[in-house]
Amino acid sequence: GDSVTQMEGPVTLSEEAFLTINCTYTATGYPSLFWYVQYPGEGLQLLLKATKADDKGSNKGFEATYRKETTSFHLEKGSVQVSDSAVYFCALGGSYIPTFGRGTSLIVHP
Amino acid sequence: DAGVIQSPRHEVTEMGQEVTLRCKPISGHDYLFWYRQTMMRGLELLIYFNNNVPIDDSGMPEDRFSAKMPNASFSTLKIQPSEPRDSAVYFCASSRDRRSSEAFFGQGTRLTVV
Q1: How far apart are CA B74 and CA B90, in angstroms?
Q2: What is the pLDDT of residues B53-65, one digit of tens each?
Q3: Is the minimum CB–CB distance between B25 and chain A shorter than 8 Å?
Q4: Mean pLDDT of A68-90
Q5: Within an 8 Å CB–CB cutoff, is residue B43 touching chain A?
Q6: Are B101 and A32 an interchain contact pair (Cβ–Cβ within 8 Å)?
Q7: Which of A67, A73, A94, B24 is in Cβ range 3.0-4.6 Å of B5 for a Cys bridge?
Q8: Do β-strands B88-95 and B31-38 pair in parallel, antiparallel, or remain unpaired?
Q9: Which of A88, A95, A80 is nearest to A30 (CA)?
């Protein structure tokens, strides 16, 4: 069935470091891909999305490119801030039931 | 719109008691999802509705769990009887249509069964 695999966390970085969180997926057809972020004590909220191959989603300095050939949707940010500390979820969507990865915790130190 | 509204935010109950979690989706959204989040299992889809009709409840762990959606603006998830292993954060989410599947989440209900 459809599935999403994310890198294990926590990812611990210093402020202004470069961030990559890997995400790969397994699905039939052409799903939309999403990154959600969950801050402590809150629900998930959409960070960015891409609906077709080679699309790049971006928001708040984060970006991810839909790579059909490698079935990947890695999340990147050039310079993280303490306020980016949260749990990040990669997800499949589109014409599919929303399917989420396990989540990757990001901790950013000053 | 106020977003997806869940109540209560926190619930502490004793083993064996009935627990009812409530959700008001965003107006105009056709899909409603119930998820459970734990450290061990991550985010699990329990059940989802389309136009108030349950479509897939294969994620509901046991017969102790039931969900209803009597109208487009209200859904409940009930656990009867509750057990300590049901302790988790339960999220309700809604989406406008299945193709976009951008899900909007409530803030969740943290359930503790003692």
Answers
A1: 16
A2: 999 999 998 899 9
A3: no
A4: 97
A5: yes
A6: yes
A7: B24
A8: antiparallel
A9: A95
- Fill in the DSSP letter of residue A71: T
The predicted model gives B2-19 an average pLDDT of 96
For the ranges A10-14, A90-94, B69-73, which has the lowest average pLDDT? A90-94
Burial of residue A16 (number of CB atoms within 10 Å: 0-12, 13-18, 19+): exposed
Distance from CA of A92 to the nearest CA of B (A): 9
Work out whether the CA dihedral B68, A93, A59, A78 comes out positive or negative.
positive
Q: Read off the tokens for B95.
A: 């989406």
A-chain residues near B45 (CB < 8 A): 97-99
What residues are paired with B110 via a beta bridge?
B10, B89
**Share above pLDDT 70 across residues of chain A, in percent, rounded to a whole number:** 97
The owner of tokens 């502490």 is: B12
Per-residue b or e along B37-62, where b marks 16 or more CB atoms closer than 10 Å to that residue's CB: beeeeebebbbbbeeeebeeeebbee
* Segment B68-95, tens digit of pLDDT: 999 999 999 999 999 999 999 999 999 9
Phi, then psi, of B101 in degrees rounded to 5: 50, 20
The three-state secondary structure class of A87 is strand
